[in-house]
Amino acid sequence: MIQDLEFGFLDNQYRPTAPSPQDVVVCVRGKDILVCRADDRSLSLPTWQQVLGWGAGWERWFDEPVQYAFTLQEVRYFLWMGKAGDPADERYAYEPAAGLREPRSMDLCFGLMTAWHLYNWYRVNRYCGNCAQPTVHDGKERMMRCPHCGNLIFPRIAPAVIIGLTHGDKLMLAQSALLARKRYGLLAGFVEIGETAEEAVAREVMEEVGLKVKNIRYYKSQPWGIAGNLSIGYFCDLDGEDAVHLDRSELSLAEWYDRDALPPEAADDGVSLTREMIRIFGEGKEPK
C-alpha cells in the first residue's frame, strides 16, 4: 500500500524549524498540488530555494511563510502557508491532489497525501471555533492554540471502515453513485459517534445493501490523508439471505463476484487498502 515505504520511515513529530534551501515545499492551490513530472512520469517537488525565488503573488495566511510538516525518507517536507501563486519554472504545474498516485513515485505520493491532510487542517483552524479569535501554533507539539480562550485544536483524523463482505467464495464489489469515474471498490463508510468500528461495519452493510453480517474480523488499517481518514479494513461473512437491496443514493452497483472471476479493473494498484483486500480475497488469504 502507499504507506509501505521503500526504506526509512515517516517521522511525524512536530519540530519548529526553518527550512534549508534544499528542503521540499508542498504548495497547494484549491484542490491541486504543485509538482514537476519527468519524462517517465515520476514526480518531484519544488525546493525552498526555488519557491523563494518565485516570490511575488504568493499570499501568506500565517506569520511564517512555511510550516514544518514532517520528515519522510530522510527528506524534510514543509507546507507553503498561504495561497500558492504561479511558479517561474515551466516544468512545474498544479495537478489534482486526489489523482497523485504515480507508481514510480509512491513514497512521494504518500508524502503529498499526508501533507495535504495537514495543510487543510491548518487552513481551517486559522481562527478559534469557540471564540473566533486568531489561533497560534503551539511551540512544542502539533497543535493550534487560542491565546484568547485557551481552546486547543489538534489534527483531526476521521475513522472509516472498509468492508470485505464475503459469501463463501464470493465477494461483494460496489461502485459509488457519488463519483463521476466509476471504479470497483468495497462497501465503506465513516464510524459514527458512539459506535465501535465493528458496529459501523454492520450498520454500513445494512444501510447500503440491506444485508446482515457475522464473523466481523479486523484485517489492517491505512492512513488516507487525501480525505483526512484512517481507513480500517474488516472482512465479514453474510448472515442470512444474499439478495441485495441497493441504496442508490450511495451506490450505483453492488454485486457478488466469484473469487476466481474478480474484474481486472479491481486489480491491486499498490496504493489502497481496498484494492489490497480485493487481491487477498482473490488469493484466498483473507482472515477466516
Brief summary of the model shown:
This protein is an alpha+beta fold and 288 residues long. The protein has three domains: 10-124, Nucleoside Triphosphate Pyrophosphohydrolase; 130-154, no CATH class; 158-282, Nucleoside Triphosphate Pyrophosphohydrolase (Alpha-Beta Complex), CATH 3.90.79.
Helical/strand content category: alpha+beta
User: Briefly, what CATH class of the largest domain?
Assistant: Alpha Beta
CATH superfamily of the largest domain: Nucleoside Triphosphate Pyrophosphohydrolase
> Main sheet?
6 strands, mixed
**Please, what is the average pLDDT?**
92
Tally of alpha and pi helices:
4
Low-confidence segments, given as residue ranges, are none
Give the CA-CA distance, first to last residue: 22 Å
| Architecture (CATH level 2) name of the largest domain | Alpha-Beta Complex
Per the CATH scheme, the topology name of the largest domain is: Nucleoside Triphosphate Pyrophosphohydrolase
Q: How many strand units?
A: 19
Give the domain tally.
3
Spell out the helices and strands N to C: EEEEEHEEEEEHEEEEEEHEEEH
Instruction: Estimate what percentage of residues fall within beta strands.
Output: 25-35%
Give the secondary structure arrangement, pairings included.
Elements: E1 10-11, E2 24-26, E3 28-29, E4 32-37, E5 43-44, H1 48-54, E6 59-60, E7 66-72, E8 75-80, E9 82-83, E10 92-96, H2 106-124, E11 136-137, E12 144-145, E13 152-153, E14 158-167, E15 170-176, E16 187-190, H3 197-209, E17 213-224, E18 229-238, E19 251-258, H4 273-282
Parallel strand pairs: 2-8, 14-18
Antiparallel strand pairs: 1-7, 3-4, 4-5, 4-10, 6-9, 7-8, 11-12, 12-13, 14-15, 14-16, 15-19, 17-18
